[in-house]
Amino acid sequence: MVKKLSSLLCIGLAFVSCKNNPNTASGDTEGLDAFNTDTLVSYIKTLSSDDFQGRKPFTEGETKTIGFLQNEFKQVVLEAGNGNSYLQDVPMVDILSHPDPNMQVKSSKGDFQLKGLEEYSISTPQTDSIISLNNTPVVYAGYGVVAPEYNWNDYAGLDVKGKIVMVLVNDPGFNNGDTTLFKGKTMTYYGRWTYKFEEAARQGAKGCLVIHSTAAASYPFSVAANGWNNSALRLDNKGEKLLDVQGWITTEAAKKLIVAGGQDSGILAKADIRGFKGVALNETVSTNIRTKVVRNQSHNVIGKITGSKYPNEYIIFTAHWDHLGIGTPDKNGDSIYNGALDNASGTAGLIEFAKAWKNMKTPPERTLVFLAVTGEEQGLLGSSYYAKNPVYPVEKTIANLNVDEVNNYGKAKDITIVGQGQSDMEDLLTEEAKKRGRYITYDPTPEAGHYFRSDHFSFAKVGIPALAQGFGIDVVGKGKEYGKKMQDAFNEQHYHQPSDQYESSWDLSGAIDDLQLLFLVSKRLAYGHYFPGWKDGSEFKAIRDKSAKDR
Ligand SMILES: [Zn+2]
């Protein structure tokens, strides 16, 4: 739609200023030579050295990391990205939730207790010293989804103000078997637990319990329950609507509540049938959460190259600089979570992008923003803060290109698109990959919702078309099995462990290929006036169409 509209608008206008998805010649390789394995390695080595202490927000590791990045940005001769500053302050609050061990249930069918951590797990995003559920009514609201583009509203006719809503994880398309319902097995954002909490808060609920099932969540209850008695960082965003209580409940415990509330537990399975209506349960729950709150400030690092022709239109490159810091030692006694691949590598790639663009003979017509974000590991906090407090107007931000980890096992024939069918950015990547003799593969487990799990997603949520790519596995000369084996080996042995360290055995030639490909995509956007959009059926299309009116 957006594409068609813009080409109609092009008629009668000078086409220099209104190009529709301008294509570059396949021989247009200017800038690619700037990408260099040696410098990429040197940035990775520095950022992931023990000296940087695992780059945890608020630690000396942060001070060193943001110092290094500011220095590099200045050396590349990027302009300061936030007024005169290369930093954006990101206020955060660390909340330790200490819940009562049990939850009291009062129902017409008798009173009983649910056991914390075994049957449910809760925490609070609020900063009050104590949060109480005091005979709070419970409502079952199906999937807890309001999706106008699918003509679906689980909250229609339900009064949930001040109550606890219990909702299913994933979206109606997951269990139904109908591939045309939502996106079938592919998880839409409506399926993510973060969405469930956001929507429940918008509806005025006091709390939200997501009903867990391993298949639908893609991880076991123990993972979902890890907020129990644990501290969590969140943004200190004043005025944001938040729940008092949020968490997970096992399917068994949810059935207990439904039956005690006077309903048949069969209603759990009926929520994916169009026309299903949620119900108020005839019962109340009581429990408390005590909190310990610490406020602190972390930083995004931001630089830019001002566009020569459309300085007020922006393309944002991102990579998260943070990792997990110093923590539990591994079996070798190493306690520094260096995060070499995750995400010193992407941060190094961000500097490579900046260098390549700065070296271009023809400067970009639009403004390029280079943003190294904090707090990804704690829930996409730095990118989310930027998206909610943007330095540059959201409606004039053309696109986001994000790098979270790079391929360290050699050149691959393919590159993976995560979140198939979301935006026109995928078409640009597909076209550029083809020109480089490469092909596209798609995320093999779209039901796990990977598109919603890295920083590009913070931009998608406010409507900015954002590309998410993963590494290829079809390794040149070695095949797909080898690529898959290398990916699995990293995930099992090094992911989020102290052993995610730079090794001289790494082959970053494939990383350079991928970075060059993304650079070529950015060239398609940096010259001319093309605005990529979201595809029909994308849950982010409506918000972009709305904000595009302010352009
Ligand atoms: Zn990570």
Walk me through the structure.
The chain has 551 residues and is of the alpha/beta class. The protein has two domains: 30-92 and 297-412 and 445-472 and 481-536, 3-Layer(aba) Sandwich (Aminopeptidase); 94-293, Glucose Oxidase, domain 1. The protein is built from 15 helices and 22 strands. The strands form four sheets. It has a 15-stranded mixed β-sheet that branches. The protein has a three-stranded mixed β-sheet with strand order 20-19-22, with helices on one face. Strand 3 and strand 4 form a beta hairpin. Helix 11 (425-435) packs across helix 14 (509-526). The longest helix is centred in the middle third of the chain and has 19 residues, at 340-358. Bound molecules: zinc ion.
Percent of residues in helical segments?
A: 25-40%
What is the class of the largest domain in the CATH system?
A: Alpha Beta
Strand content: 15-25%
Question: Could you list the spans in which at least 5 consecutive residues all have pLDDT below 50?
Answer: 1-19
Q: Give the overall shape.
A: globular
Average pLDDT score: 91
Bound molecules: zinc ion
**Major beta-sheet overview:** 15 strands, mixed
Count of distinct structural domains = 2
